[in-house]
């Protein structure tokens, strides 16, 4: 038992240590400009980490305003899209004849590029509110929602239908009603699949929130700042916002992993 | 076989159901979103937009502005409603200067590259270039909105907030190493511009031939308007010395740029404030080209120029110079690279992908502040082509 634990610890340590070491190595190469020599860049298009970090600390309050706008859009879209996707999966499970085929078609929505739907949704939501900030935030959330719906519906549909062998037979042998089967067997079975879907959706929702900001009517958000600064040739500032965008994605993913670890403890 | 058929139909039905539920879902979400956004609004708009009462004169006769409304009343009303539009991305400084002139907050709506926002009234005071969007709004040819006399506009030149736009620039290093090439390029380009301004209709056709993003009618309109920008300065006086770099106009551009270009990078922001005219432009090449006999021995013969936007009469001088062989007469083999979307012409020139570029002086100043070694060698447009267009009550 003791041996097992030490082995387990060593494994977790190495899985964390190696990526961290690699990150430190890159950061050192970057700051010492060796990285620039390797990939043939200059300090203008790829500014040094120290300068990027300096810009982040200098403009912290301004960055927070943009981060807030982006996170609200990403989380709002994620929640709406996931709920809607789960609902679609339930509908598909209740009507199995249409279900799987319908979901296959629904997955086609996933193939629509964000760049194509963002401007369209912008125009469609013009009547939603008189305040451009509200209506453009609504348009952005719809974009994120579309990207999050499909993975949730397909994964949770699998969770509803791919049950453990004989568990359905067992329930039926007890003469359980369909609703009982659904709530006692299908729903608990779908939870791990929900987290599989979220593992796809969480990074996707951040990316689609950033891209939808490019086309939004109201000028706000981390993605918009990246675009503005690159067009204005302010690469150091653009990199600062890129770093922030990475941070948002990583933090949200880590939160998801922690929640998953707590909720699914002993289930995997 | 029959079952497969049935399945296909049921799949189609399912798709319809999905679509309907999707649309229903959209409607339901409305409440949530407005909750979120409402709490966000006060912090997001730093400069709180305090709605001001529209002047009585503008409201009396209809939803828009009266034909004789003053510039101040129109700007105050539209800004108070938060319905002034601009494309952003470095095109907004003149608008912000105008808003500041009339004591309004400098926030604006992000305008798309069409005039649909103006058409559907989500933008009351929309940015437009005299040679492009203004023509689309007024005219009724293909792609136009056909407003005719139903719109009026505010000219940045008249308001004293004009900034210089299309120029020719290169890197300081390229200019130093290839002075003859730069002179030859300026000479041939300005010869092209002179011909284009003398024959705008022919120039429009030449541009159309080289791949146009817009209709032939709009191209012809554009050529006529661009001619005015090349031949008239900010005060309205005629310019005969095409491509001249006027110090007064350049200084006004630099002063406004220092005031309205906001850079988060403190090193770049500090550098911006120290810039002088000599940092951003070099008149020696233009003077030498103007005095020359048209014979050059360029150090680099194959050169390229990055346009700021898609092929259109905005750049007719270069296409004319290419088509009429002015570039080859000067010993150059020129390739014109169209822009569009988010292509950063300053970055393209700085990284050496192209040798010359066309950009707005304000964009060059921002790039220079960011650390790019760029220098303007010719100023093609002598006045600002940016206007704010608004609808008037009939």
TrEMBL record, chain A:
Record field: transmembrane: 12-30, 69-95, 102-122, 134-154, 193-216, 236-259
Source domain of life: Bacteria
One cellular-component annotation, GO: plasma membrane
Keywords: Cell membrane, Membrane, Transmembrane, Transmembrane helix, Transport
Localization in the cell: Cell membrane
An annotated GO BP: transmembrane transport
UniProt keyword Membrane present: yes
InterPro entries xref list: MetI-like, MetI-like_sf
Gene3D superfamilies assigned to the protein according to its UniProt record, in alphabetical order: MetI-like
Domain ABC transmembrane type-1, residue spans: 67-263
Main localization, broad class: membrane
Membrane topology according to the record: Multi-pass membrane protein
Any one Pfam family match given in the protein's UniProt record, by short name: BPD_transp_1
Family in the record: Belongs to the binding-protein-dependent transport system permease family.
Protein name per the record: NitT/TauT family transport system permease protein
Taxonomic source organism: Anaerocolumna xylanovorans DSM 12503
Automatic annotation (TrEMBL), chain B:
Residues annotated as signal peptide: 1-24
InterPro entries: NMT1/THI5, SsuA/THI5
Domain annotation SsuA/THI5-like: ranges: 122-203, 313-391
Swiss-Prot/TrEMBL catalytic activity: N(6)-(pyridoxal phosphate)-L-lysyl-[4-amino-5-hydroxymethyl-2-methylpyrimidine phosphate synthase] + L-histidyl-[4-amino-5-hydroxymethyl-2-methylpyrimidine phosphate synthase] + 2 Fe(3+) + 4 H2O = L-lysyl-[4-amino-5-hydroxymethyl-2-methylpyrimidine phosphate synthase] + (2S)-2-amino-5-hydroxy-4-oxopentanoyl-[4-amino-5-hydroxymethyl-2-methylpyrimidine phosphate synthase] + 4-amino-2-methyl-5-(phosphooxymethyl)pyrimidine + 3-oxopropanoate + 2 Fe(2+) + 2 H(+)
Native organism taxonomy: Bacteria, Bacillati, Bacillota, Clostridia, Lachnospirales
Alphabetized Pfam families for the sequence: NMT1 (PF09084)
GO BP terms: thiamine biosynthetic process
Pathway assignment: Cofactor biosynthesis; thiamine diphosphate biosynthesis
Taxonomic source organism: Anaerocolumna xylanovorans DSM 12503
Gene3D superfamilies cross-referenced by the UniProt entry: Periplasmic binding protein-like II
Protein name: Thiamine pyrimidine synthase
PANTHER family xrefs: 4-AMINO-5-HYDROXYMETHYL-2-METHYLPYRIMIDINE PHOSPHATE SYNTHASE THI11-RELATED (PTHR31528)
SUPFAM superfamilies: Periplasmic binding protein-like II
GO molecular function annotation: metal ion binding; transferase activity
Domain of life: Bacteria
Keywords: Iron, Metal-binding, Pyridoxal phosphate, Signal, Thiamine biosynthesis, Transferase
Subunit structure: Homodimer.
Function per UniProt: Responsible for the formation of the pyrimidine heterocycle in the thiamine biosynthesis pathway. Catalyzes the formation of hydroxymethylpyrimidine phosphate (HMP-P) from histidine and pyridoxal phosphate (PLP). The protein uses PLP and the active site histidine to form HMP-P, generating an inactive enzyme. The enzyme can only undergo a single turnover, which suggests it is a suicide enzyme.
Family membership: Belongs to the NMT1/THI5 family.
């Amino acid at each position: 038992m003791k041996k097992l634990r030490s082995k387990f610890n060593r494994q977790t340590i190495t899985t964390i240590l190696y990526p961290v070491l690699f990150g430190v190595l890159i950061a050192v190469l970057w700051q010492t400009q060796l990285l620039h020599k390797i990939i043939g860049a200059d300090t203008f298009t790829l500014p040094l980490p120290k300068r990027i970090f300096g810009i982040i600390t200098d403009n912290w309050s301004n960055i927070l305003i943009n981060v807030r706008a982006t996170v609200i859009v990403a989380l709002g879209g994620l929640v709406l899209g996931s709920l809607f996707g789960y609902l679609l999966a339930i509908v598909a499970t209740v009507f199995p004849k249409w279900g799987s085929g319908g979901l296959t078609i629904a997955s086609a929505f996933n193939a629509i590029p964000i760049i194509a739907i963002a401007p369209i949704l912008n125009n469609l939501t013009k009547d939603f509110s008189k305040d451009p900030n509200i209506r453009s935030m609504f348009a952005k959330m719809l974009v994120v929602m579309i990207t999050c719906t499909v993975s949730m519906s397909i994964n949770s549909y699998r969770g509803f239908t791919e049950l453990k062998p004989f568990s359905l037979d067992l329930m039926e042998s007890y003469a359980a009603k369909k609703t009982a089967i659904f709530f006692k067997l299908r729903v608990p079975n779908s939870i791990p699949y929900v987290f599989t879907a979220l593992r796809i959706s969480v990074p996707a929702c951040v990316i689609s929130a950033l891209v939808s900001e490019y086309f939004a009517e109201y000028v706000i958000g981390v993605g918009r700042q990246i675009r503005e600064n690159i067009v204005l040739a302010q690469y150091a500032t653009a990199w600062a916002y890129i770093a922030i965008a990475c941070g948002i994605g990583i933090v949200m993913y880590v939160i998801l992993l922690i929640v998953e670890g707590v909720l699914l403890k002993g289930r995997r | 076989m029959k079952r497969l058929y049935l399945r296909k139909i049921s799949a189609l039905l399912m798709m319809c159901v999905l679509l309907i539920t999707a649309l229903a879902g959209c409607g339901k979400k409305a409440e949530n979103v407005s909750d979120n956004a409402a709490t966000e609004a006060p912090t997001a708009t730093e400069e709180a937009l305090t709605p001001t009462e529209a002047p009585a004169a503008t409201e009396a006769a209809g939803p828009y502005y009266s034909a004789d409304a003053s510039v101040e009343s129109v700007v105050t009303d539209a800004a108070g409603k938060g319905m002034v539009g601009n494309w952003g991305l470095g095109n907004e400084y003149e608008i912000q200067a105008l808003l500041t002139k009339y004591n309004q907050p400098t926030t604006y709506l992000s305008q798309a590259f069409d005039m649909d926002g103006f058409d559907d009234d989500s933008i009351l005071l929309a940015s437009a270039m005299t040679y492009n969007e203004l023509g689309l709004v007024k005219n009724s040819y293909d792609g136009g909105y056909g407003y005719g006399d139903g719109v009026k506009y505010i000219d940045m030149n008249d308001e004293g907030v004009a900034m210089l736009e299309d120029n020719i620039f290169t890197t300081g290093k390229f200019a130093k190493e290839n002075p003859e090439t730069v002179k030859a390029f300026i000479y041939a380009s300005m010869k092209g511009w002179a011909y284009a301004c003398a024959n705008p209709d022919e120039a429009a056709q030449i541009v159309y031939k080289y791949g146009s993003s817009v209709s032939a009618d709009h191209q012809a309109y554009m050529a006529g308007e661009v001619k005015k920008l090349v031949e008239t300065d900010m005060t309205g006086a005629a310019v005969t010395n095409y491509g001249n770099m006027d110090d007064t106009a350049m200084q006004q551009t630099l002063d406004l740029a220092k005031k309205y270009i906001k850079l988060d990078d403190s090193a770049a922001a500090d550098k911006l404030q120290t810039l002088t005219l000599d940092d951003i432009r070099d008149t020696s090449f233009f003077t030498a080209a103007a005095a020359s006999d048209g014979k050059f021995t360029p150090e680099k013969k194959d050169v390229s120029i990055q346009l700021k936007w898609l092929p259109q009469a905005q750049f007719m001088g270069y296409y004319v110079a290419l088509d009429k062989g002015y570039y080859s007469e000067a010993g150059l083999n020129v390739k014109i690279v169209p822009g569009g979307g988010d292509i950063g012409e300053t970055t393209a020139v700085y990284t050496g992908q192209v040798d010359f570029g066309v950009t707005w002086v304000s964009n060059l100043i921002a790039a220079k502040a960011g650390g790019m070694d760029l220098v303007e060698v010719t100023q093609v447009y002598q006045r600002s082509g940016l206007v704010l267009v608004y609808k008037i009550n009939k």
